[in-house]
Write a structure and sequence with these properties.
By secondary structure, the chain is an alpha+beta fold. The protein contains twelve helices and ten strands. The strands form three sheets. Strands 3-2-10-6 form a four-stranded antiparallel sheet, covered by helices on one side. It has a four-stranded antiparallel sheet with strand order 5-9-8-7. Helix 2 crosses helix 3, helix 3 packs across helix 8 and helix 4 packs parallel to helix 12.
Amino acid sequence: MCSSASLPVASRALAGEGSGVARELRERPNSTFTARPSRAKLTCMMLDSRSGQNPPVKHHYIPVFYSKRWAAKDGRLIVFSRPYKDVIDRWRHPDATGYQNSLYALRGFEPSLAHQMEELFFRPIDTRAADALTEMEVNRNNAKWTSASRSAWTRFLLSLLTRCPDDIELFRRRYKADLIRSNPDVEERYLAVRREDDPPSFAGWLKLRPEAEVERNMFQTFQVFIENQKVGEFINNLLWRVVDTSAANLQLLASDNPVIRTNGFQLPHGHMALPLGPRLLFVASRSQDFIEQLMQTPMRSVVMQCNRHIVRTARRFVYASDLSQAAFVRAQFGQQPEKRMMERMLDSYDESGRAIFDGYDFD
């Protein structure tokens, strides 16, 4: 997490300091977190909806609908990266960045079935989020939110915090390491369904599971992090604002770690922000005072602080519409890595003594 000064200006108004007691959060209309009918049930059976089609191999953790907001007239955007020592810039089409081949592929599955997480889970998230983003672009703070559309945007925010290559690598490593330990609750549940010819313990049973089965259960557990009802409800109930930063005369940047968030998000001054394009910023906060102070802050200061965070916490890429901030990006690229939310969530499992596979499907 970043410090409490994620969006602050010199006056520190954006951190909520000196603003007094935040107003009590009132329930927002249409703020119930609407769960999808079910999480994507990963199957070892042929998917009828994709029969005869080649599954998508390019898995975008920064969706094209989002990055293309920074595209110039020719449809390309500037992509800053640091493949070796120096930061370089290249013009790229949105489809050619922010992805990794087979990032969410299920190992041990047939090629036609290996990409179900991309097809059945992330693609619907991105499709609905694209509609929500268009609504904000068109209607700004008069956006016509429903429980479904608000939840779609919340789900997208949570996905951006948990779906990058580092997140998936960490989750896969920690999940499989977790398979060698168990706890009394899981063992009790296992014994209740254990057959006579099964190993005497759940830990022993797990060691015999085929890779495809472990991968299926692993990614179904992963979905819980994004479909979390408590977290989703909390974000849905925040005050949401779309801030037009055109007056800054400075464009917002984006990156492969684009969500700005504070320590102690449940504190009165806690907030979350996401650039929606070079001149639009999404902000969510518990505090009306914070929102009002943000709107009174010079937009150039807001944009400068956002860009500083975006660039300094970038991992692989920074996105821009032009090269006007190239020197700044090269000097600050990746200078302040932050702990990923995925790592924090996995640590919470360790601290609670629960196993990541508490929800393992025994069927």
